[in-house]
Design goal:
The protein is built from 7 helices and 11 strands. It has 257 residues and is an alpha/beta fold. A 3-stranded parallel beta sheet has the order 3-4-11, with helices on both faces. It has a 3-stranded parallel beta sheet with strand order 5-10-6. A hairpin with a 4-residue loop joins strand 8 and strand 9 (161-167). Helix 2 packs across helix 5 (186-192) and helix 3 (91-105) packs across helix 4.
């Protein structure tokens, strides 16, 4: 899961053009809430079996809030990878840290990710995780069904819908079409306070600091420009019945029609 800047708040960049994740309001990425929901549904379908849902995230201290949200929804435990050296990492380094954290957890039977982060939108981390862990990947699922160690998903494309099957362990990413994520209940919020939330550093994972961070990123933002202030719109009046023609001329001049 990823802790991202609130899209409705004032988002800013640091002096090195990385996203400010400390001085702005943040929250659990909405697209990752669907991943948490699907993981919880898999557990509920296996009632009577010993199934544990672990919420994993990387980020600054505030990112622990994303894990707490998952715990409130019903996850059993949380892991927060916190290390200043990770700041500015691209998807390649992020997938490395996540993969090593998953190995330390014990390489779960099912690794569930959101379809993308709402701040980056790259959609590549699930595939990179699968490659690093040597696991099959089933991505962009809109419907998820499980039975035993078998998983079957539906993926909706532009020209066709695919039904794909796989055997666990597997890396899965889900879209926002899988169903609404549950809201934490009061009971869930109170129970989350007693659930374990571990904090790990890069040293705990055996990852060298030189392999992560902005200095080794394959991609980085070179320049940012603030959005110009919104200007007043142009009003087309229709006092003599010529409003429709004036509107058409305006749209044509802007090449909207």
């Amino acid at each position: 899961m990823k802790h991202v800047p609130d899209a409705t708040a004032d988002r800013r960049f640091e002096s090195d053009n990385t996203v400010d994740r400390v001085g702005v309001d943040g929250l659990l990425s909405e697209l990752d809430e669907y991943a948490v929901e699907q993981a919880l549904q898999v557990k509920e379908k296996r009632e009577g079996e010993e199934v544990e849902v672990t919420a994993l995230t990387i980020g600054p201290e505030q990112a622990a809030d994303a894990v707490r949200k998952a715990l409130q929804m019903g996850a059993d435990k949380g892991v927060h990878v916190l290390d200043d050296a990770i700041a500015g990492s691209d998807a390649v380094a992020t997938s490395l840290v996540l993969a090593e954290a998953l190995k330390k957890i014990g390489t779960p039977d099912l690794i569930v990710c959101g379809m993308a982060s709402t701040d980056g939108g790259m959609s590549v981390v699930p595939a990179m995780l699968a490659e690093r862990l040597g696991l099959p990947q089933v991505t962009l699922a809109s419907v998820v069904e499980t039975q035993g160690d078998q998983i079957r998903v539906k993926r909706d494309g532009d020209t066709a819908t695919e039904v794909i099957g796989a055997t666990m362990p597997v890396v899965l990413s889900v879209t926002d079409q899988t169903g609404e994520a549950r809201y934490p209940s009061f009971k869930g919020i109170m129970a989350a306070k007693k659930k374990p939330l571990e904090t790990w550093s890069l040293a705990d994972l055996g990852v060298e600091a030189e392999k992560v961070g902005l200095s080794v990123a394959w991609t980085q933002v070179e320049e940012t420009t603030a959005r110009p202030p919104r200007t007043a719109g142009e009003v087309v009046t229709d006092e003599d019945g010529s409003g429709a023609a004036a509107l058409a001329e305006f749209l044509a001049a802007k090449k909207f029609i």
